[in-house]
Amino acid sequence: MAAIISERGSYVAGEWVGETGTLAVENPADETHVVDLDAATPADIERAIVEARRSFDSGVWASIPVAERIRTVHAFLDHIEASRETLIATMVAEAGQPVGFAERSQFLGGLGIARATVALFATLPEEEANPVPVDEATRGRVALSIRRFEPVGVVAAITPYNAALIMALQKIVPALLAGNSVVLRPSPLTPISSLILGSAAEAAGLPRGVLSVVIESGAEGAHLLTTHPAVDMVSFTGSTAIGAQILAQAAPTVKRVALELGGKSAQIYLPDAIAHVARGAAAVVAGTAGQACVAATRMLVPREHKDEVLEVVAKTFAALKVGSPTDPATAIGPVISAAARQRCERFIGAAVENGASVVQGGGRAQMNRGYYVEPTVLDVPDNANPAAAEEIFGPVLAVLGYRDIDDAVAIANDSRYGLSGQVYGSDTAAATAVARRLRTGAVNVNTTLFSAYAPSGGYKQSGLGRERGPDGVRAFQEIKHLAIGELR
Fold first, then answer.
1. Is 260 considered catalytic here?
2. The whole model's pTM is what?
3. Which CATH number fits domain 10-261+463-482: 3.40.630.30, 3.30.450.20, 3.40.605.10, 3.40.50.2300?
4. Closest alpha carbon to 61 in 155, 193, 197
5. Nearest to 230 by CA among 473, 18, 47
6. What residue ranges do the domains of the chain occupy?
7. In this predicted structure, what is the pLDDT of residue 291?
8. What pLDDT is recorded for position 20?
């Protein structure tokens, strides 16, 4: 593998800063020390916010032509693309991600989404006519009614550990294109890869203060970003518990808040689609070790086929290679930390105590070092079981039986989450009819789509707002209404 990214500190308003060696990064695959980073101080993060405010209010970025912003963002992405080998090596080292996932999903997928977001943004108007019926109240008074889209201002972007690069790009690129100034705070568990965004800002010539990347070992900076009066918007991806805290912290200053939070998504197999369960099961754990908020960790199948499904899925999981992330044959790497592994073990134990049985896996994978969990299949008796109700964020799949389609829909919707879902059926129309009944932000019917043009976001406690798609771009903009008439 190539050497990892060389930057070691935060990028604040055009300068690299930080306290020497205050953030140690561990490789979860072998528990070795990767590097010590220079964490930002509270004063550094305060300066990042103040400089973002200054850069926005001065118009140094927000007021330049859109075409110029687009050219600069492309240059920003060019620098990231040129750093391919070191960036992939960094993501493998800090997150324990299999090299194939780091390359295809994070690097190529992230850049692909970013480039397509630029193309999408270029098609969206800065102003558009707002149709107003002509009646006695408006006749002769209003010549034009216009909706104008303007940047929100200063955006705090807080990203998770499980897909640091792609999640950062999903926030930073539309925010910058819209004319905002951004302060990015990555997870302390995987901060190294996000430093490429600071060097990319430097290489592309982004004006000072338009993009800062601040790394920290705790949460003091994140708290400052969500409470500071100079911040206009917080965009957060992470757990529902932390999302609720951010809502409370942002409330006194009435910030805009965009949240993509936890999930407990269901994959429903209609009776004629049982032959496809192996593929759907593998997708839950392969590459991510189940550390994905959209992972469909509840598999719903007809009761009469449940034993058959459990046998197939158990064989599928048993065949998945668990091992070193640097081995191209590895399908499942470690979870992010000892605490994450303990969480998986705790939930597997609680599931069994509440009537579930382990069909495959259930313990620690037999590796000398690293935070590995066996890909685990649980036969779950009902939707109240902890393995069906709670987000485990590990390679654990709960298989449940349903009586009929109405029962399947009821089970899928019986969750405080509503982020994603899947329906499989040979009769596409019937499968789509089921998808329309699911209370969730996205549903894939017999396929998947991850695109800059397709929105993602949650119902219920899975979040607020949308990322990607036109709605994801507009999330970083204010809507101003202009009513224009002539003096008479």
1. yes
2. 0.96
3. 3.40.605.10
4. 155
5. 47
6. 10-261+463-482, 266-451
7. 97
8. 73
